[in-house]
Amino acid sequence: MNEKTYERVIEYLKQQIQEGKLSCGSKIPSERELAASLNLGRNSVREALRTMEHTGMLESRQGKGNFLVNMPQKSLGNVFSMMLLTGQSNYREVSRIRRILEQEAFVQAVRLKNPEVLKRLKAEIKEMQIPEKTAEHDRRFHQELICAGENQLLVAVMESLSGLCEEEIAHVQKEAKNEDWCQIHEEIVNALEEGNMEKGLKWIRKHYNKIDDTLIF
């Protein structure tokens, strides 16, 4: 498959979306139909669809066909993972980007003042206090905080980065006292509840400083 084949399939599907014929979750035309519409070989179309599935644009369902999905974090995660593997980036840079994104999400969350967000964050902290559950609920806490900013692009980027650091963050949690770790998260939630932007940003910085100071590169 050459790049032009892939681009032609992408452009065709984009046109179908713009015309209102397809949307997220829709089943796309079959390989045979795409090949006929675009005057391409079925093998080329098949490879193009596989590439789109790998990048998170399509989902293949056995016996049902291919469906449009919206999983940009999948392709972003692959890109970021490859950058780490090839030495083009490192975990400290990942941590810095996560810090920036989370601070932006916190600012938006303060402005939106959603009480349901506070309830969910407090519930995650409660579970986080159980040592064997700390890692899982720490991850959920930060997912909730990012989602609180109500910016889907930010959520996608953060999710693609979070999976890269799970082992490293688990190492940080082992080094830190559980009560200290929970306190940082409690202070972030307190600041959100108070609408105190400066205080919340300070504790988010403290959280990521602890990660940066403990990570081994």
Automatic annotation (TrEMBL):
SUPFAM superfamilies: GntR ligand-binding domain-like, Winged helix' DNA-binding domain
Keyword terms of this UniProt record: DNA-binding, Transcription, Transcription regulation
UniProt-listed Gene3D superfamilies: GntR ligand-binding domain-like (1.20.120.530), Winged helix-like DNA-binding domain superfamily/Winged helix DNA-binding domain (1.10.10.10)
Residue ranges of every copy of the HTH gntR-type domain listed in the record: 3-71
One Pfam family here: GntR
The keyword Metal-binding is annotated on this UniProt entry: no
GO molecular function, one term: DNA-binding transcription factor activity
Entry protein name: GntR family transcriptional regulator
Protein source organism: Mediterraneibacter gnavus (Ruminococcus gnavus)
